[in-house]
From TrEMBL:
Entries under SUPFAM superfamilies matching the protein: Putative methyltransferase TM0872, insert domain, S-adenosyl-L-methionine-dependent methyltransferases
Name this polypeptide is given: Ribosomal RNA small subunit methyltransferase H
Family: Belongs to the methyltransferase superfamily. RsmH family.
Species assigned in the record: Candidatus Coatesbacteria bacterium RBG_13_66_14
Superkingdom of the source species: Bacteria
Pfam families per the UniProt record, alphabetical: Methyltransf_5
């Protein structure tokens, strides 16, 4: 959804844009190619992604492209004044297709799953958690109905060292799964927990709102319902709507009049795009325009407090 993302994002052809999920630099490169007066700061938490873009794109764009190794939770450290910011969430093709990263249930590799391999716990640490805790992660982040059964099977099969070992155990525990690989939800849950994806996303969006100039756009592309729900609630709350659960006696979510939602419903890829890029089939694009500057403050989804 490169063309659609750019159509929402670029309001100033000479603006400075934040690509918070640089990946292979596809979106960043497209902004710079189509708008010769624009500049981009590309950030990613994955040092491998930055190294690749440094080799492949920097020679082409020179100082129009800045690069920062930065997780969403540190974006507030950047100087503001961006004309827009893009969050193309999830994993890059490079991360998914490298067996050594441990993200794929179809490729044999270590149980790693860290986007930044220089720090933090690996998936191998999580599969060794107590059964209850493991079931909670698989249920909460993977929406897996059979989370308890999966957690029990993992505990019984330990030690587990590789992605294929884990995938086999999960497939046996889950059984047929309505067209998707039965290991999908558990792998998604572990990956989200390893990288604290929900917390990172909430903090990144909060920061972006304060980094973008009024009139600039915040564009997100999410790939599963958990991510999309965080963005949707954030947009609602930042456009002045209370998102507290029904029945909450007094509002605790601290709504702000910071933005106006442009996409009432999320945009989804065309049939043609899905044919060329099957991974895009679950993509949902949302966009909002910043109206008022708000300083970074840590609000978030009150349902999780
Ligand atoms: C779908 S890819 C982006 C692809 C990119 N738009 C392109 O066109 O090549 C998502 C990227 O976001 C990065 N990412 C995900 N969560 C992040 C976070 N919390 N902080 C920084 N980068 C993150 C991943 O490492 C990955 O490289």
């Amino acid at each position: 959804m490169v063309a659609e993302a750019l159509a929402f994002l670029v309001t100033d052809p000479e603006g400075r844009y934040l690509d918070a999920t640089l990946g292979r630099g596809g979106h960043a490169g497209a902004i710079l190619d189509s708008h010769p007066g624009a500049t981009v700061l590309g950030c990613d938490r994955d040092p491998d992604a930055l190294a690749r873009v440094k080799n492949e794109l920097l020679p082409r764009f020179g100082n129009r492209l800045g690069l920062e190794l930065l997780p969403f939770s540190s974006l507030h450290l950047l100087p503001g004044g961006f004309a827009g910011a893009l969050f193309d969430l999830g994993l890059s093709t490079e991360q998914l297709s490298d067996p050594e990263r441990g993200f794929s249930f179809n490729l044999d590799g270590p149980l790693d799953m860290r986007m930044d391999r220089t720090q933090g716990s690996r998936a191998s640490d999580l599969v060794n958690l107590p059964e209850e805790e493991l079931a909670g992660i698989i249920h909460r982040y993977g929406d897996e109905r059979r989370a308890r059964r999966v957690a029990r099977a993992i505990v019984e099969a330990r030690p587990l060292n590789t992605t294929l070992e884990l995938a086999e155990v999960v497939r046996r525990a889950v059984g047929p799964s309505g067209g998707i690989d039965p290991a999908t939800r558990t792998f998604q849950a572990l990956r989200m927990a390893v990288n604290d994806e929900p917390g990172e996303l909430e903090r990144g969006l909060e920061s972006a709102v304060s980094l973008i100039k009024p009139g600039g756009r915040l564009v997100t592309i999410s790939y599963h319902s958990g991510e999309d729900r965080i963005v949707k609630l954030f947009f609602q709350r930042m456009s002045g709507h209370c998102v507290c659960p029904p029945g909450t006696p007094a509002c605790r979510c601290d709504p702000a009049n910071a933005l106006v939602v442009i996409t009432k419903k999320p945009l989804q890829p065309s049939i043609d795009e899905v044919k060329h890029n099957p991974r895009a089939r679950s993509a949902k694009l949302r966009a909002a325009e910043i109206r008022n500057h708000v300083p970074v403050k840590r609000g978030g989804d009150p349902r999780k407090r």
